[in-house]
Task: structure prediction
Amino acid sequence: MTGAKLYTVARKELLLLSRDLHGLLLLFVMPLVFILVMSLAMQDHYASRSGAPLQVMVVDHANSATAAELVATMQRNQGYHFAVVPPGEHEAALDAARRGNIDLLIEILPELNAFAELQESENITDQEPVVVMKLPAHTSRQQEHIFAGLLQEALGRLRLTTLFETLNAQDLGISLPNEEEMMGASAISTTYLYGNDPANAPSSVQQNVPAWLIFSIFFIVVPLSYTFIQERQLGTLYRMRSMRVSPATLMLGKCVPYFGVNQIQVALMLLAGVFLVPLLGGDQLQLGTNWGSLIIMSAAVSWAALGYALLIAVVARTPEQAVTLGGMGNIIWAAIGGIMVPAFIMPPRMQMLSHLSPMAWALEGFLDVLLRNGGWTMIRDNVGLLGLFGLACMTGAMYVYARMR
Amino acid sequence: MRKVPSLQQIGTTICGDNADEVIRIEQISHTYAGATSMALDHVTLNIACGSFFGLLGPNGAGKTTLISLMTGILPLQCGDVHILGRTLSQERDSVLALTGLVPQDYAFYPRLTGQENLRFFAGINGFHGPKAAERMERAIAICGLEQHIHRLAGAYSGGLKRRLNLAIGLLNEPRVLYLDEPTVGIDARSRRFILDAIKTLKADGTTVIYTSHYMEEVQQLCDTVAIIDHGRVLAHKPMCELLQSETHAIAPALENVYLQLIEEEPLS
Result:
């Protein structure tokens, strides 16, 4: 194998790709559209997961210190942001809820004051509602139940405070706990299994940019295998063999330009996450500071994708077969690998299955770098898996090509 | 006839020391994996330097297998090929550097221009920069592609495609050129053009090994002919000798001799 021959084959591949409009659309435009659409479409879902508060609007019909205390009690929970409006803005609040601009609407009724003063009927089943919850279409049943729990806790606390105030602790001969002790605030410890900080949960852009970037890297299977099969059908492979082009030169001559194309894809998609997604109202992609790990991950994913593409190229007999085999294979890898549906929302069995997809190894590695600022020790397992996958595919491709000869 | 620089002008030695015998094919046999019969059965041929050698036979006779073995595309299983005193099994690269192949298919890239195709195959042959430009210029001149060289090859007519296919095979200025059906599927004018180009090569002393189903073409061009079928050589003679065996016709025709020989062979 000579460098000059390698350069000649690589240059030809780039020329062919530069004239393949469909291939260019597939490699550059498709992932960009996916990144923009999916990052923006799933922004709210990821935001709630990463701790962004739900927006709650409160229409205060009671207009009392008790109502203010109820809201203040609930506001201690950082999962919600409360905006209190007077009864005159009731219709506007309802409209905001219907449009989905807020996550929850509650109306505090005047009956709250009597409820807090323990003046209601002794029979609890006769209790009139004192707060009404109104839920927009996008609010889940889960969110409804969690908020109802918070509301009940706050209402109970109001009454408990009134009760303590009416009791004379000294007469009872006991020491009453202060408010914090009473609510058991320090009785709960939280551990985040995906990192030390809830902010480390992937945002929509942190998940979607690497996911669709990986998807697009693996899609080099289509132009690469299409060119290879066309070469076989046209007889140019036959001719090149008569010109003493070795299989290694041919394979490497295809890999080198597509490796370069993959690196351009990585740079462009990351730039889109940093600059383009925020322009359209999404979050900004955080790249972290571990550039070395990013380069290693990018190279490892490209290596795996090149191996897969070459294997499909030598196994498929027609361009249609290559597009079907390669494209379908990619979609299956993506579906089980957490590209289309994030693995962390899959049931445990599906999460186990996702570990079989090279796209899952790639995504995990990219998330380690971009989200957790991971170094070599954090990414080496996934880099190793991708390396072995690429090597196995390349070996298979060389074996099939040699037999084809 | 177009004026093109000859091989002598650019300093190529036409024949080796053994000028009478440029190619010697010795006892070549080949069996494809999974096949029950041999594609080639102990084929032995001698081809003189600078001759125009016709290789004839029906479809599936073994012509393409023989060319594939001689051009190193298929590995030799049995026997050997000697070209200008060099042995294919021992000096593969130097033997193949002396040969050029023009396959029956349009073996180039439709999405590249004629010039880009030629530059690519020149590079594959190891020619770059001014040397590649010189080789390309000669091939373009022989095949009359000057007016079309910057167009995409996929947009060429059938005749232009054949000419580009031939031009690529000439880039390494081969001493031995294999032409596999170089005029199939093109109109009379384009065929005439290609045949003229091939005659130019013959005048330069290139040894041409030619397969075609057009018998009149072979009769017009070739000095020597081998007819093979079922992997075996049925006849291997100078054209004039072969035509002498055709005694019934007023104007002896190669086609009659060919059909007579083939029909004597039992159908497989």
User: Anything to note?
Assistant: Chain B touches chain A at residues 71-75, 92-93, 96-97, 99, 101, 103-112, 116, 120-121, 123-126, 128, 168, 172 (CB under 8 Å). Residues 4-19 of chain B have pLDDT under 50 and may be disordered.
